[in-house]
Amino acid sequence: MAQRIGKSKPQGNDKRDKKKSGGFSKFYKKTNPKSIIKNKPIPKPIKETKEEPTTISISKDGSMRLNKFIAHAGVCSRREADKLIGTGVITINGDIVTELGYKVKRGDKVHMDGQLLVAEKLMYVLLNKPKNFVTTTDDPQERKTVMDLVSKATNERIYPVGRLDKNTTGLLLLTNDGDLAKKLTHPKHRVRKVYHVFLNKPFTKSDMKKVTDGIELEDGKIIVDKISYVETEPSKKEVGIQIHSGRNRIVRRLFEHLGYDVMKLDRVVFAGLTKKDLPRGKWKHLSKAEMDFIHMI
Fold first, then answer.
1. Are 237 and 204 contacting, i.e. CB atoms less than 8 angstroms apart?
2. Does some domain include residue 17?
3. Which member of 165, 177, 179, 261 is catalytic?
């Protein structure tokens, strides 16, 4: 019978940004990417696309906290791992471990429900998603998925951070870093995204004001961070919009609510990352500078 180690312990007004109008080119430069997250500086983009995995951090004695080990194995975030440990489904060298601060040593065999866990290299892949690919790791309808596009990026299991609709193009981050993925998708971190929106008719100034003031949708009010016309498009059918909400199809629903059809939607900035030197349908591994930046969130 497996020995039980440790005791199971139960786990127990943002100020809105000031709205600014103006040309989308200037707006894009402002949000690309210095002003996206707390005005923290970002190093200049680095063009390398070679694989640059993050090493698994361990202490000098070769140990690692159990919750971190579970997160690096791609199971869940560290916070969720704490709850998992408390349920008694984790064994180390055959013994049940419920101690939250337990440290895994080199050579230890960690199992979850009998399945061996292996800490993976942390990988970060940025994709410029084209149309007609669904954001999922597996599609029962056998449609083309974003995983088909990054199949040669790494041998590790990576997952999309958030999602883009089938017909939406632009930036999508894929990783096996559960902690970062949760942070980038949690509303409290207010991670902002910038979209280039193509409409079927000119976007009126009165509707621009409505969006700036906030639009009441069926699932609640949506207030954007910034919105502006695209400077180079005099027809006013193209709009740049910056948001931090992760609600489903929020950009499309916002414009549809006002009577517009979104002809094309492209995400040009995500969490301070941009499409610079990344053609449609291509991917790259984040540079160390880019990884350092997104971990500052």
1. no
2. no
3. 165
Domain end marker among 78, 97, 116 = 116
Domain span at residue 88 reads 56-116
For the question of residue 165 being annotated catalytic, the response is: yes
How many Cα atoms occupy the beta-carbon half-sphere of 53 within 13 Å? 16
Same domain, 109 and 145: no
* Domain count of the fold of the chain: 2
Q: What is the pLDDT of residue 43?
A: 40
Give 152-168 pLDDT, tens digit per residue: 999 888 999 999 999 99
pLDDT < 50 stretches in the chain: 8-22, 30-58
Would you state the pLDDT for residue 93? 94
CATH code for the domain of 145: 3.30.70.580
User: The whole model's pTM is what?
Assistant: 0.69
- Per-residue pLDDT tens digits for 27-71: 555 444 333 333 334 344 434 344 444 444 445 566 889 998 998
Q: Tell whether 211 is covered by a domain.
A: no
Residue 113 token pair: 């429900």
